[in-house]
Amino acid sequence: MDLARGFLFILILVILSLHHYSSSVNARYHYHKKQKEKGTNIDSPVSPSPVYAPDPSSPVDEPAPQDPVPSTPADPPSNSPSIPSDPYPNDPGDTSDCIFDVTSFGAVGDGSSDDTAAFRKAWKAACAVESATILAPSDEAFIITSTIFSGPCKPGLVFQVDGVLMPPDGPDFWPKADSRKQWLVFYRLDDIKLTGNGIVEGNGQKWWELPCKPHRGPNGSTLPGPCDSPAMIRFFMSSNLVVSGIRIQNSPQFHMKFDGCEGVLIEKLSIFTPKLSPNTDGIHIENTKSVGIYNSMISNGDDCISIGPGSSNVDIEGVTCGPSHGISIGSLGVHNSKACVSNITVRNAVIRESDNGVRIKTWQGGTGSVSGISFENIQMENVRNCIIVDQYYCLTKACLNQTSAVYVTDVQYRNIKGTYDVRSTPIHFACSDTVACTNITMAEVELLPQEGELVDDPFCWNAYGIEETLTIPPIGCLQEGIPQTITETSKYSC
């Protein structure tokens, strides 16, 4: 009898030890969410960990624990049964990847309330935590006014949009104190990801109706802008950025801009805006290097992708573009400025129903250079100006002729095939009078009329290069060799 009682006592000790350890391990799974300021979200799918749930009997001003992330449980007592070193291989362990749901910070998400303050609070909290996620949950629509999400933040920050984000509906509802040049700005950040299955809706219709570009005035005159429609998303002076999966649509102006950034990955992005929406570039890159844009779809009222001055090492692949104004390098050299663009590759792309295909556009009077450009394996579908270099770019008819120009050199066009709109010649090289385009390579270029017959032959002006294979249509205007002189070459070095 004593032996049986002893065995039963040992068995109870073992069970109690296992229960204590299991509780310690389970406590490692928790979900960081700030308590809602406007009541409690009873529908929250995951409640705060009971380890740090506030005690109703505690004073209101009792300080929270200093370290909200529990450490790995201590080793079990020596009398506990031996266990594997990693009994839960999928255990997140140190859960530094906390989720900050904006609805827990007061966001309503009803499509009419101003949720700006909640997003700013969620950002401030998440910014201080490594590998944090700011979540805009699905089935909610959040209105945010113009906001700068600034760093530096702890690395690994994720901004996850599963619902709908949108600005106020048009210029009449835009707060007068807010900038009209930009909506959401991500500033001085490193290692951040913008992702999700949701939609960033620009509410651009009422902005497009403004006279945003030079337009006709009374008695045949031309009136200026105003061009103060906001760009939708801007990354500024940031590095190691990822944009993945989201859909952006109906921007008042540019959809997404990268300025002063390094190390950018864009993949599986969708951008959709009507064909006639003005100045709605899809992705604009400026003063930015080391960029990859992959497997994305862009349809808009201006360039699908525009590459501005100061850009280098840009790789674009698997992009479907159109209707649009095509994929452009430029415009460059405006107001006699110096522009340097190098090492740009566009390959395995489709451009359809667009005003341009692959384009290089520069203003007269600029300096600097465009070099190391490759357009390869591109399918054209009913595109005007499939291949175009325009060094006389001008938005009005009042631009003066100038001798200086951005130097365009080392440009390759390989395996570019498909159909073109016969209203324009499919190949157009309009290079500067004084600064010729050089080292142009044409190989396996076959472009046929979508319907009808070619009206104009391919056009070349002061363009030098080679045809590795015969082109369709034939391009007999490309000059061989190099020009005898390129004056003041130091002006064009970068």
Description:
By secondary structure, the protein is mainly β. It is built from three helices and 34 strands. The protein has helices at 2-26, 116-127, 205-208; strands spanning 99-101, 110-114, 133-136, 141-143, 147-150, 157-161, 164-166, 182-187, 190-195, 199-201, 215-216, 222-223, 231-236, 239-244, 247-249, 256-259, 262-267, 270-272, 283-286, 289-294, 297-299, 305-307, 311-317, 320-321, 327-332, 338-352, 358-362, 367-383, 387-390, 407-420, 427-430, 437-449, 459-461, 463-467. The strands form three sheets. It has a 21-stranded parallel beta sheet that branches. The longest helix is centred in the N-terminal third of the chain and has 25 residues, at 2-26. Mean pLDDT is 83; it is low at 12-96.
Helices and strands in order:
Layout: H1 2-26, E1 99-101, E2 110-114, H2 116-127, E3 133-136, E4 141-143, E5 147-150, E6 157-161, E7 164-166, E8 182-187, E9 190-195, E10 199-201, H3 205-208, E11 215-216, E12 222-223, E13 231-236, E14 239-244, E15 247-249, E16 256-259, E17 262-267, E18 270-272, E19 283-286, E20 289-294, E21 297-299, E22 305-307, E23 311-317, E24 320-321, E25 327-332, E26 338-352, E27 358-362, E28 367-383, E29 387-390, E30 407-420, E31 427-430, E32 437-449, E33 459-461, E34 463-467
Parallel strand pairs: 1-3, 2-4, 3-6, 4-7, 5-8, 6-9, 7-10, 8-13, 9-14, 10-15, 13-16, 14-17, 15-18, 16-19, 17-20, 18-21, 19-22, 20-23, 21-24, 22-25, 23-26, 24-26, 25-27, 26-28, 27-29, 28-30, 29-31, 30-32, 31-33, 32-34
Antiparallel strand pairs: 11-12
